[in-house]
Amino acid sequence: MTKTVRITVSGKVQGVYFRMYTQMKARELGVRGYVRNLPNGDVEIVATAEEAKLKQLVDWCHVGSPSAVVTNVAVEDIHPPETFRDFEIRY
Fold first, then answer.
1. Per the residue annotation, which of 37, 40, 72, 90 is the catalytic one?
2. Which one, 24, 39, 48, 83, has least CB within 10 Å?
3. Does residue 44 lie in a domain region?
4. Do residues 41 and 77 make contact, with C-beta atoms less than 8 angstroms apart?
């Protein structure tokens, strides 16, 4: 079943290429949506895919990019699921 989730990643996740690596991982998994920096220093990911692919993305978020130091990953469902054409970095 396709669903959409909002993933909020906290820690040292800005200025460490987290968004670029997230985009690469999402595209590798076939996940659509976007990633963006938040003003408070967190990173927000909105992703749509099959549940198994979303779980893989969430699991990856706990590690993130090579220089990231992730302290928390929060996931919430978005209803109804959103539709995206690709996975992009938003500025």
1. 37
2. 39
3. yes
4. no
Q: What is the mean pLDDT of residues 49-64?
A: 98
Residue 87 lies in a domain: no
State pTM to two decimals. Answer: 0.97
Residues 49 and 30: beta-carbon distance below 8 Å: yes
Domain that holds residue 38: 2-82
The answer to whether 19 is a known catalytic residue is yes
Which of 19, 27, 36, 40 is flagged as catalytic?
19
Q: Nearest CA to 87 among 1, 22, 18?
A: 22
Residue 89, in any domain of the structure:
no
Q: What is the CATH number of the domain that holds 27?
A: 3.30.70.100
Residue 36 is among the residues annotated as catalytic for this protein: no
Cβ contact 13:70 at 8 Å:
yes
| pLDDT value of residue 74 | 99
Residue 55 lies in a domain: yes
Q: Average pLDDT for residues 73-85, to the nearest whole number? A: 95
